[in-house]
């Protein structure tokens, strides 16, 4: 490999006025890279210099141009923001969850950006949660953490861990004020309501308490920002005395830590994209050495849950869609089958309660829950009435219970919380997310369509539209896609989406390969050297919707984020004529450059998802053949809006910045916009009102692109 870069010029872009009338003209600074005998020139690689004032000035110039280019949408943006705000019950309260002697919940208050974490004492034997009413504080409320107070004076705020000790007397929490997902860990004594002197900087998500609450386990990252160390901290002692309990040397692996629901074991898991290794520590003996459940074997994935005398093992050993087994707590060894592998039924997780197991699964593109009584081989699957829906467990911190809480939603049903009696099978609706302004699910319809991919594979599509929306090709349509990491884009409800549906826009989700909607094989057929299936599936979905008279290419807008942003960039090159516009949020559009650089955050851990182009010439050539940035051509591109964040550590800001610059250089007739959040991370703005404003901006752009800007 060889790489050279000339000195950066002093003048590199121009903006004529405070309200520009043309995009910023970016100076090209050719830099070469050579791998596998292939030399590539990257004229915009200098934009990766985050500390360079010229880079910041360029991003700000792009923001100024985006603001000017969308100035005509200001009123529509404000209208959509007010619609989102007006449909949301701003002062609200989540359904309290019982743990020990308390009910825990989160409150939101009108006019405040962040949630307030609270609890109230529970009466002995109390099963039903307190009524949430109009969202006002519950009698006897104790405020554990107020995000609004923590965020005061900050442009960004995110909560990392929020972890109450088993006795309920201590709270571990962590905060991030930059958006780079590096948190300061603190401890609060809930008996006296004071934050202790314990403070650990630069921690990652995840924590676990010992059984007596004297010891806290947490995670830090390496220079590539990979979570690689689990530490033990004794409350009251300085962080400099903390001890590394486990360090993961293999750069492909991440580590995590948690306390089992039974509060009997600390679980330390190390996972690459395709391999797992789990260790446990007796929570009553926090200084003990971690014990390995099974040594790692390349390609073997497993997770561990404690249940009485056994560890439950969810695994893929000779089981592509996973099986459930168990082994002895006292002497972990052979795995005894509990639920055998069944092709087409993907087992995703198992939750153990004292007298029951609940298995989360998916089948035929839909999620499900299976209940198994302890000591019995009998089981039943919960049933739900709608043809499209998403269901999963919600919280459930209590181990000794016969009642579990589930979350349920569909494209037309707002987020709903049910308590399910595992013995009687009765379900009680505890709360459905309020949608103000007279929302009626009967005014909307959801549908399932199927596209046929180039290789004959049938690809599911979930759709929702307001009743009466024409099916003659005249309706605008927004098509969303992701398709990576076996992450499924299941049907869900969105208040913000109503601003599209009520203006006649059809909303659709393309469940493309690379996701997990149809099982493990669906994922395997959309990664590594089959990654292009993700892109061709999406194009097939777009064309199928046109063929079914849902829309036309002139009114079809595509949207995706992160790895879904890679999908957006790829289909822009693959079939630009199929779309009127593309929204790419925090888009992974320069994947080859990033995956070639092992010094970048998370690169090595990604090799089992995309392949290793450093070592494998075939992977290099394959990635180069689909990389959006590498394949920008002299094409008639649709309108493109790229949204990114300066402090994103997962998809670095310079990928979309370079992409937009190259699009303008190679295909200058197109309309391309770049919007950078200068104080946020991968998830965008942190406060809920700021997030609504961002969504209103994107929605207005979509409506304009689809020809509905006048639909105020």
Automatic annotation (TrEMBL):
Domain named Peptidase S9A N-terminal: residues: 24-431
* Family in the record: Belongs to the peptidase S9A family.
**Record's InterPro entries?**
AB_hydrolase_fold, Pept_S9A_N, Peptidase_S9_cat, Peptidase_S9A, Serine_Peptidase_S9A
Matching entries from PANTHER family are given as: PROLYL ENDOPEPTIDASE-LIKE, PROTEASE FAMILY S9A OLIGOPEPTIDASE
Q: GO MF terms on file? A: serine-type endopeptidase activity
Question: Domain Peptidase S9 prolyl oligopeptidase catalytic: where?
Answer: 492-707
Q: Signal sequence: where?
A: none
Instruction: State if Protease is listed as a keyword.
Output: yes
Q: Does the keyword Hydrolase apply?
A: yes
How is this protein named in the record? Oligopeptidase B
Q: What species is given as this protein's source?
A: Actinoplanes nipponensis
| Keywords tagged on the record | Hydrolase, Protease, Serine protease
* A GO BP annotation: proteolysis
